[in-house]
Amino acid sequence: MPEKVHTHFGDSDEDSFTQTPNPVSDQVAGQEIARKKRRSKKRKHDETADNTQPRNGESIPDPEPVPIAKPTIKEFTPEGKPGDIPQPPPTKTQVAKHETKSKPKSFSDTKTNFAPLRERANALYELRKKLPIFGHADEIRHKLRAHDVMLLVGETGSGKSTQIPQFLVNEFWCRPTPAQIPKEDGSTRSATVGGCIAITQPRRVAAITLARRVAEEMGTPLGSSSPASKVGYAVRFDTSVSPSTRIKFLTEGMLLQEMLHDPWLTKYSAVVVDEVHERGINVDLTVGFLRNLVSGKKEGRGGVPLKVVVMSATADMESLTGFFQEGFKIQEREQKHVSNGDAAEKKETAKEIAACHIKGRQFPVKTIYSPEPVHDFVDAALKVIFQIHYKEPMPGDILVFLTGQETVEALEHLVNEYATGMDPSLPRIQVLPLFAALPQVAQQRVFQPAPPRTRKVILATNIAETSVTVSGVRYVVDCGKAKVKQFRTRLGLDSLLVKPISKSAAIQRKGRAGREAPGQCFRLYTEKDYLTLDETNTPEILRCDLSQALLNMKARGVDDIVRFPFLTRPPREALEKALLQLLNIDALQDSGKISDIGLQIAKLPLTPTLGRVLLAAAENGPDCLIDVIDIISCLSVENIFLNTTSEEKKEAAEMARRDLYRREGDHLTMLATVRAYASENADRKAWAERHLVSHRAMQSVMDVRKQLRTQCRQAKLLPRDDGSNHTSDPAPILILQSFLRGFGTNTARLVPDGSYRTVVGNQTVAIHPSSVLYGKKVEAIMYNEFVFTNRSYARGVSAVQMDWVGEALAG
Ligand SMILES: Nc1ncnc2c1ncn2[C@@H]1O[C@H](COP(=O)(O)OP(=O)(O)OP(=O)(O)O)[C@@H](O)[C@H]1O
């Protein structure tokens, strides 16, 4: 499995909301306060009459901006006046930041700028009312007033992700609440708890696009574009929130990261876990931590409850109910044990798990199966795309699900080639790829409307499978397969395998159509094959390297892994392997407790192995670290070199890249490529084309490189003035030895029959044809990735010496 760093590519896609915040005159701010007071009074009255909100669904929240100049700061009282839309208190830095950010503009500008937001919100309100979930708003609110945990099942497109946070945000329990939090010395400190809702998503694309949509529906600017913005998002390397943020979409990984600093999630009144059926490791850890939080005594929240909503279209809600109930039962037993009375019993009887089932979807989606099994899904998808394009009326964009970057790019090429020969009287075709390693700006292009008389054809991996609405899509083409990580216990490695998806994933893919109008889903497999698919995704925790998950837990104070509430308990063997791996890279002490190195690694946005490499490089000095960052940045994208399928192309690539290839192997070759690309000042795109290097991938590399450098400076691994533009020759030995500190177990030695055998496990492994070392015989190799297609391949390979390997494995 390639070691991944996640990328951040700025927020340039948020064009409509990037106005500079406007300072507000005192007079206008005064009016604003008066208006809020009136609202506050009215709401107080409403609440006294009936502590419920009489509306069905959520009325359109007033999109008028809350001004951020001096008067507004007064409103950030810890108590949060009833009726006010409560605001978390801004920190001094936040205030200072926003004050300096604000460019002088007149209030009339603000009005002009926000009026369209309000109009748009009004228009969207009409659409929201038609969503199946809308009629359940009161039921959901009532249930959550009585219960802390709710499980919600609703079909794809029923409105879960966009509406639930809006239904809840004005609930009384969702206000910042003053609390007394015990300190270690037995005293207490005053703090404000709650005020925000977190909605977790498995993927960054979904988190960003949902935040944008909900901001539109609420008529508020998005994220950090205005201090008045109520909706924000946080994905790795890219956080866009304001001091007024009340609804925050974030990846599960980001919530876990926040828990490192704030284990009680004191910022939040509710956490909504969306798309739980995906069962990635992070969602499993998230629900485990949340169960502990809701069923425990909440002392770190000063006793203020945290509401948890777990949602999906297809999850097994029965086992989730059992999972949360078990948490309450354990707590009840423990309390009984302590108090030995009925008080605890009474307290626990109210802690049932609420459930809500939303029936129906807004628009039907017709399923069309392939009559025969398909052997080449790229070819089959090509045919279906043009069949739709020739037969089906406009508008109607097409979303195709493929397995990975390679198949996306192969089909992109084919569709473009065919489209050039099309009858010019037909509408045009615009092909847009969508995969994780694509720069964010390119990913966001998918969400922009197609030009006139043009049909968008989006070629995506499963990153578009859940939660995402691509406006305009009426047709989904599903290849029925996905690349999945699979841990090969014997080798102790993750590999990437192409496997059939589950029924649940097929339902999600189909659900990407029929969101704005009726749709069609073309399954490139037979109905018989569909019926043989697994019902649900195999939880990642059962099939992946667990070292990152374990480090995550250890860093959050979970020392006794066995007692952690796993949604599905991973096999003992995999846990032991992961513990061993963490011990190997010095992330744990011999006692099993996290080490200082482990703590440092946990704070890096990298896998433990790459984190270890980074720290080892830092020990070798800033020059080495700067070079290692370049290489790690390349490992974060699927392939920086363009595919060379034919022999002819291969030869051309060899010629073009001659000056980049390094005899030491792929790592130094990547470094040479990044250095050459970065020093190209004239035309980087042309340089990339000349060298058959992917310009798109290199843009991502440059972005990750920048982020990692910043992160290393913040972590004091790099000095402020690190000479990052250094031109001194790289030190290959130091670089490769740094990599071995993380990848010591990913090594193989040459044996007399000319093959390579892994140092750990003694398995035969071949150098992948994409490697610059392909066909070469060296004493030993180190590799980043182990892929299994028709045989076992090592990818990302460099030549190393056996005594370095020995040293690395000895620690
Ligand atoms: N970015 C968007 N552009 C256009 N319409 C959108 C967008 N996001 C949501 N919608 C509309 O809101 C509806 C509900 O979306 P939402 O994501 O809340 O549903 P969901 O129940 O969470 O679906 P899923 O389970 O598929 O994630 C969509 O079907 C679509 O009509």
Automatic annotation (TrEMBL):
Residues 1-11, 72-82, 96-108 have a biased composition (Basic and acidic residues). One of its GO terms (cellular component) is nucleolus. One of its GO terms (molecular function) is double-stranded RNA binding. PANTHER family: ATP-DEPENDENT RNA HELICASE (PTHR18934), ATP-DEPENDENT RNA HELICASE DHX33 (PTHR18934:SF118). Residues 35-44 have a biased composition (Basic residues). This is RNA helicase. One of its GO terms (biological process) is positive regulation of transcription by RNA polymerase I. InterPro entries: DEAD-box_helicase_OB_fold (IPR011709), DNA/RNA_helicase_DEAH_CS (IPR002464), HA2_WH (IPR048333), Helicase-assoc_dom (IPR007502), Helicase_ATP-bd (IPR014001), Helicase_C-like (IPR001650), P-loop_NTPase (IPR027417). The keyword Nucleotide-binding applies. It is an enzyme of class 3 (hydrolase). It catalyses: ATP + H2O = ADP + phosphate + H(+). Keywords: ATP-binding, Helicase, Hydrolase, Nucleotide-binding. Residues 141-333 form the Helicase ATP-binding domain. Residues 1-111 are annotated as: Disordered. The keyword DNA-binding does not apply. Residues 384-557 form the Helicase C-terminal domain. Its EC number is 3.6.4.13.
